[in-house]
Amino acid sequence: MDNLNLGNRRKIKVLLADDHQLFREGLKRILNMEEDIEVVGECSDGSQVMEGCRLHLPEIVLMDINMPILNGVEATAQLRETLPEIKVIILSIHDDESYVFETLRKGATGYLLKDMEAESLINAIRTVSEGNGFIHPKVTGKLIQQLRRMEYLSETGAIAEANVSREAGVKFVAGDNNPLTRREAEVLRLMAEGRSNKMIGEHLFISEKTVKNHVSSILQKMDVDDRTQAVINAIKFGWVTL
């Protein structure tokens, strides 16, 4: 993999949830080759996930969406409600942004595609274990395109109340857990539209330096490193729902 010394790292315990046994076996072989990752259990349908988590106490569940009895989306929702300390990474064949929105809304921390390389999967597991989100680059592009089509609240109502956009069912929710000021919420909206700092400044009639300060404040308050993660986390935190 890389030249990092992983010998002293703690083990990241992973539970596999997928109804295809051969796929699980392949994942298990790949992950158990890493010194800092251990597959502690397997589930073949979503209804087994809760019991598997209580039995094996994993840190991360690699969850397929299409499983019998209980799908991965609902299994993720159950985990978020009952065992919120366990992180879920969706590992799916679906690259449609609607799946990403729904799984993030239900509590997933990551979304990966099954055709990704083994090294990228391992990197994603380590990233999520460190408390960060991880979205497959191909999916991120589609997610941002969808976000650009959303209509958020106007500046005067960004914190006061939610409003429904012209796209059916899409809402921007400014709940009590939203730490952003009214101006920061507007900057975040324009960031989601793909506007540069200069364009945001021209739109809001403020200097580019002031925009940079707002962006820095947004990233700090949301504990993220870049604009994309800020927008994605706004969905995950429930500020944007379907």
Automatic annotation (TrEMBL):
Residues 173-238 form the HTH luxR-type domain. Residues 13-129 form the Response regulatory domain. The keyword DNA repair does not apply. Signal peptide: none annotated. This is Response regulator transcription factor. Keywords: DNA-binding, Phosphoprotein, Transcription, Transcription regulation. GO terms for biological process: phosphorelay signal transduction system; regulation of DNA-templated transcription. The modification 4-aspartylphosphate is found at residue 64. It holds the Pfam family Response_reg. The keyword Transcription regulation applies. One of its GO terms (molecular function) is DNA binding. The lineage of its organism: Bacteria, Bacillati, Bacillota, Bacilli, Bacillales. It comes from Paenibacillus anaericanus.
